[in-house]
């Protein structure tokens, strides 16, 4: 089951690499990595999300709030 979950997270990561416009996807990815105990990947997802959505102040605020909630 753990391998299946990691595979799903990896697919989401790859999807967001291709198209970074999905704010909810970024928030899910940050949360998933943090829950899996991979804080470095969670922080990297946060940074990638901020870069991908840098022209959307509302999205950036949500990313920052989620990062704070997750302890990133």
Core attributes:
81% helix; globular; 0% strand; 72 residues; mainly alpha; 4 helices
In short:
The chain has 72 residues and is mostly helical. The protein is built from four helices and no strands. Helix 1 packs antiparallel against helix 2 and helix 3 packs antiparallel against helix 4.
How would you characterize this protein structure?
The protein has 72 residues and is an all-alpha fold. The protein has helices at residues 2-18, 23-35, 39-52, 57-70. Helix 1 runs antiparallel to helix 2 (23-35) and helix 2 (23-35) packs antiparallel against helix 3 (39-52). The chain starts with a helix and ends with a helix. The model has no long low-confidence stretch (mean pLDDT 97).
Task: Give the arrangement of secondary structure elements.
Elements lengths: L1 H17 L4 H13 L3 H14 L4 H14 L2
Helix pairs in contact: 1-2, 2-3, 2-4, 3-4
What is the structural class?
mainly alpha
Strand-and-helix sequence, N→C? HHHH
Q: Give me the number of helical elements.
A: 4
Task: Compute the average pLDDT.
Answer: 97
Oligomer: single chain
Specify Rg, calculated over alpha carbons.
11 Å
The best one-word shape is globular
Described by strand count, sense and barrel closure, the largest sheet is: none
Binned strand content:
under 5%
The total strand number stands at: 0
For the termini, the CA-CA separation is: 26 Å
């Amino acid at each position: 089951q753990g391998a299946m979950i990691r595979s799903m997270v990896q697919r989401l990561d790859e999807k967001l690499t291709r198209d970074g416009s999905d704010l909810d996807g970024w928030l899910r990815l940050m949360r998933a990595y943090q829950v899996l105990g991979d804080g470095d990947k969670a922080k990297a997802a946060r940074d990638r999300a901020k870069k991908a959505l840098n022209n959307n102040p509302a999205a950036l605020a949500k990313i920052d709030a989620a990062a704070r909630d997750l302890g990133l």
